[in-house]
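hey so u asked for the seq, here:
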Amino acid sequence: MNKPEDRDRAGSTRGSAGANPGLSGPDLAARGPTAAIVPAEGGRINAMRRALRRRRKPPEPPALLNSPKPSLTYRIISYLLVFPIYRLLFRGRTAGNGNVPMEGALVVVANHGSHLDPPLLGHALGRPVAFMAKAELFRVPLLGPIIRACGAYPVARGASDREAIRTATDRLDEGWATGVFLDGTRQANGRVNAPLPGAALLAARSGAPLLPVAIINSHRAMGTGRQARLVPIHIRIGTPIPPPASRRRADLDVVTEACQAQINALLDLGPLQADEQAGRLHPAAEQTALPPTT
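ran it, structure tokens below
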């Protein structure tokens, strides 16, 4: 005959087994008295997590950082060296300056025709534009301090693309405008031919907009395999394009193609027209420039 305590244990086991039919009496005895209530507790915890996710605010866009102010060395080089070369020697003109955001991080994308392009871009846009430069150049006694003052940042020879992207992203996080030539190297015809997704990836990582810029005739003035020629160099600034929606390759390609299309369309307009002003583009150029994507 069973003892009273044995009957109590048996009743307790049957009651627990009814609460969790998936476990038998011996299983529950092995797992302990709390095994039956774990599923219910887990369901309540998951429900609380879902409620918190619904109440969580969407991510806010990056704060607008104050861009670094041009150093004295930068101002001296820009006005005493770049200005005479661009404005006088090559009869340079710029249109579309009203499209340039003067504060906050910015990815400046352009075609690349000659070594003149980096200093001309910074001068024409009215705010310093940082470019990558070989680390060896920063060790040259006179050249190193000059290019550093102009916003260039060092990248070690043989550095991986990931390291270069990380270095450029750090500049953007400081509020710099960072310049990227879409093809990566100089092009004999001065157009954007085979753009790389690096600029779009920078914009996706930092949340900075992209600003397409067309540099007209620099490939004819001092291009690859050409003798220097004093042809007019003009710069036409397009309209900003928002960063990609994500870092997925499909999203990066869409934005890269939009930058390529806008720059080449601005190049196709030829040299600046007489009625184009620095503040805004010629009406034909405004129609050609792609509007910001959503």
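The CA atoms of residues 131 and 252 lie 21 Å apart. The chain has two domains: 4-55, 72-288.
lmk if thats what u needed
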